[in-house]
TrEMBL record, chains A, B, C, D:
Residue ranges of coiled coil: none
Source taxon at top rank: Bacteria
Ranges of residues in domain Cupin type-2: 113-178, 290-341
EC number: 1.13.11.4
Residue ranges, annotated region (Disordered): 196-218
The keyword Oxidoreductase belongs to this UniProt entry's keyword annotation: yes
Organism expressing this protein natively: Nocardioides panzhihuensis
Keyword annotations of the record: Dioxygenase, Oxidoreductase
Name of this protein: Gentisate 1,2-dioxygenase
Molecular function terms from GO: gentisate 1,2-dioxygenase activity
Keyword tRNA-binding: no
Length: 364, 364, 364, 364
């Protein structure tokens, strides 16, 4: 961990390179005066307004093998306790000079919970999601609603919802965490609260309360939903099960060219993404197929649930295997080639770019 | 200008302060291995999730006197040409270590144009606004629509709209620029294009095309507005004149307690702010009145159009005079006391915080 | 007044014309049995589903001369008192068999108030508007807010808002009323309440409270508007003044072909019409110009504020003079020819057709 | 079938009852003159603005027994051919004087298709739905997408979607049709087109294309939905299967008092009803339970899928058995008592009343 930021700032010119300085003593005095007044001359800056985004984050892939081994070693070496809160390894983008972020806007990490461990309750304004690349046995309490976690499931922990993780099983479990933390921090809007002391482990139904109310059938919504629930800025359905995701991808495959299908996880009661800051999608690319090259503004974090292949990222080729995680920086060219059928989960900050009128997408 | 960023990053502990390190050689080796794998241990970080926002930007006021004198000196010392684009002095928040930003999300500056000068056309994804604290004589071309600028006017230059500034008058003119540039840069979404070569100065109508179509009377909207215009993410009315703002404040004063009034500049055809990233407001506080203390998430940039008084900012008291500009960092306590009647223009990133479910406001 | 309805019903065939009847005693018995069971055979109906709308209302013009003379005679002959409520002459479309409606969905009428008379307060779910074709002197109280009425003004009395009319002047005044009454009645949703006893006449400001809050300048909206006001289904601005309408039309004329201009009255705080059931528009056609022929679903009620010319309505030509009112039935061809410059106010049920996915418009 | 309308019109007073007539010859002449001018005096009308809705439609129940027997007899007596289009028995509300409508706004009917019959393709602006009270074997083509129909399924045929019905099975089938026809007709917005000649019967998948794209899992929506599909004013999911409805009701029962549950059928991609004119709901009331009394504006058409009990409708008690259909007129008190567990499908014009600001609901 080094001290540099993952965020954006213009590259100032060194003093000696100042354009108008030369041997002008007036200008020199002037530059001193404005510095004193906390003002800076635009005409001496560069890199502020660039034809296309100049992105510090670089394309990178974290291999499943590394993630699993290193998380397991943390499980042995580092206790989880109230002080430490979570046993989490943050993916640090090599382009960000040591900041613990996968890009300038997103946090991605693996979290590891030993058998019989509990990660205690808290809530925070940054929104989070969990995607399970393998295993099961853990459940998450979301404002008191227990959600069992299994391979392929997407679990939301939206902004300001209390959450805690319990592993009543006899085996450790690991999953992928993605948060909008760098963005919320850059907006100076981080709030945090400890939750009530953790509850004893309980028997957990395979279906959460959220699923029973909002996840039974598409378009079937309970009447009498309170304004308190209806007006929240995120989906009332907080878990999307792999069985349904898988079946939907198969259904959609039939309607395209049979080579690929893609779905978006949505608020089932509204025309919006699951959370205001994070879009979630799952893509299936049939073995032997190569996708079109695309570019879009904003960061994409991708996780391989199943299959093998390669991804081209801005001219760099990376091999993919189940459990791998990779990042597609803003406006970076991106193309997938499936050796065996790839199932890739993607989350992105696209809803933010759309809300601010900044979303662009180009498909070759 | 120093090299540090204005943006957020956690404060990493120095190696020797690592919590679990002590004399544990296994852990030491482990930390080496994860660093190699571009992973970082959450349990060794601090400052990530704080009870309330920890904001680097500090409250600060730039005095009118300084802004005017230093801008005028730039006018003498620094030529404006195609290479240099704009003669702009950026307000650099003292808390941001030298970054040329007024806060982590906003850019504020004064721009100075000599008589007969032209700042040539370009467009960029960061959105901008101009607020005229004094003077007149300049006009701005917005996608070809000439907008005359006078004291108290608010002029929008929304994302991706071509703009250029012309000063056909015989006197220099200065105004306040505010942009969402740091935010758009942090989102890795900066695009930029030079415009067509500048047009010869022309006679400019006191009312722009935008005003003639969308600014005649409240609620009176032309039929047959094209989808291209209707679907843009910003207000079709790109200038709000002081005469109407002033009259509206007087009208509103009668409906409150007679002590203060506040209006919001809005898209006159929609239920939204003028731009997706910037809220604009004007507040009048009658001499002798002290406002309630408030706090809100996000940055506010305030400019005194008229009147004198003081502002309390997180315990710090600053005097205010016409032409002063000050910044209210996120969640900072803010209270105004008017000696003579204050007219204060405020712009903020509140629409972003609202869109992302992160807006909080507390009034004591 | 005859007893027939203005509303739609299929034209049943007479018994003897039944298609399958012939000499089939079984069918005859069957028809008796289903009638007994309150069932009717679709196969014996005609006119249910027609290629284009079959509209009972016919094009018609009420001349200013008639309206004024007959309203004035009512003023002499018929007292206004609590029992009688309003001195109103309803325009009865000749195609509707005597129903007091200008079309199947809209009510239009002239209302006449003698000097010193008061039409007492009440409210009802049908929404109404007043358009002043001539004169001034009356004010309307809208939930207690006094609104002075003058030539060319549009005044809203939205659903469930208390309203009463006062004429403190020394001359009688007449205006046009349009209501969505037939539609609300057909939806079985008419509610009505008497208001508090009328207030003594008062001195009325030329600008109502609604105008002071929401009508000063386009896009200038007070902060701190209560949810009670914000959430109402209609515009918070309840009067649109002729001076601004006139100036806006002149502005818009410059941007078209100089031959015609049209504006829509809108909620100045939202992307919607002034009321959920009624669209309001004002059109200016320069003398010598003939408009394109158009057709649209739903009823249009048009009033000539100024100018002369002719209107073609489904092949019928009608001359137009100031103060005339005419109706354009659904899907009827409509074309204007201005002899001298025509200013025509139009209100329609278009927002209803749009909300229900039934709006169609065709311009030749 | 008698010739009177089902729609609303005020009850005019007979000439001899006119309030002001008496022996006033001036007034008599005046009434003649205004009649000539197609004007009517408001002060002589009654019943226009009533404290609460005065509704012509009355509460009524059509028994399953009657519906089934009479539909089957139609199947024997009346051929279906291109001329006749559909073999449909419309429920005629006894309060509407013979109009073939279940209320002033809605059409309800049973449709009967013999084995091997086809009802050919057409489309119309009135929107329709089918609810299957019993049986299966028929499929409906919706813009070419074949939808198999089974007991408990809800099938939409939204405005302007081509539809045709095929019965390739060896048994007849009957179902409930509900349309917004009277409302669309009253708005003078009926358009109709014959479809392409019917297709040969085909093997039909148990899941339609619409279900495969939009009906797999809640919140799982395909990316790349075309604007043409996204912008339609109705749900892209055109069938809701009983298995999922039933499971959802069971899930919801657990979250209430265990006595009753209610769901609304919704567009799974938006915050809206399935069609802009028709709301659809399914309610389960456990045997032994009595619901609260409610009133709401607009018409409700209810069909008993299963169970027995009674319904109180404005003081009238009606017994309920599977297959019964009943109508709840606007603002009529409504209360259910379940003898055995009742499953009741309800459709209403509530979205229209909501869109127009006219929806009211009162629960005792």
């Amino acid at each position: 961990m080094s001290a540099t930021s993952g965020c954006w700032a213009p590259t100032p010119k060194a003093r000696k390179q100042l354009r108008y300085r030369a041997a002008e003593p007036d200008l020199d005095a002037y530059y001193g005066d404005i510095e004193q007044a906390h003002l800076q001359p635009l005409w001496e800056m560069s890199g502020l307004l660039t034809p296309t985004p100049v992105v510090k984050a670089v394309p990178y892939r974290w291999s499943a093998d590394n993630l699993q081994k290193l998380a397991a070693r943390a499980g042995e070496l580092v206790p989880i306790d109230r002080g430490g809160d979570r046993r989490v390894l943050a993916m640090s983008n090599p382009g960000l000079g040591g900041a613990p972020f996968i890009s300038g806007t997103l946090w991605a990490a693996v979290q590891f919970l030993q058998a019989a461990e509990v990660a205690p309750a808290h809530r925070h304004t940054p929104g989070a999601l969990r995607f399970v690349l393998d295993g099961d046995g853990v459940y998450t309490l979301l404002d008191g609603d227990p959600v069992a976690m299994s391979r392929g499931d997407l679990i939301l922990t939206p902004s300001w919802v209390y959450h805690e993780h319990h592993n009543p099983s006899s085996a450790p479990m690991m999953w992928l965490d993605v948060l909008d933390l760098p963005m919320v921090a850059a907006l100076d809007a981080v709030f945090f609260e400890e939750g009530p002391s953790e509850e004893a482990d309980q028997s957990v139904s395979p279906r959460s309360a959220a699923e029973r109310r909002f996840g039974q059938g598409p378009g079937l919504v309970p009447t009498g939903v309170s304004a308190a629930v209806h007006d929240r800025p995120h989906s009332p359905l907080t878990v999307y099960r792999w069985a349904e995701t898988d079946a939907t991808l198969n259904s959609l495959l039939e309607f395209g060219d049979g080579q690929q299908a893609e779905l978006r996880y949505r608020d089932p009661t509204r025309d919006r993404d699951v959370m205001p800051t994070l879009r979630c999608e799952m893509r299936r690319v049939v073995g032997g197929h190569t996708t079109a090259t695309d570019q879009q503004t904003g960061t994409r974090v991708c996780a391989v649930l199943d299959g093998t292949g390669t991804v081209q990222l801005g001219g760099q080729e990376l091999s993919l295997a189940p459990g791998d995680v990779f990042v597609v920086p803003s406006w970076c060219e991106h193309q997938l080639e499936a050796t065996s059928t790839l199932d890739i989960f993607t989350t992105s900050d696209a809803p933010v770019l759309e809300a601010l009128g900044l979303f662009r997408r180009k498909v070759a």
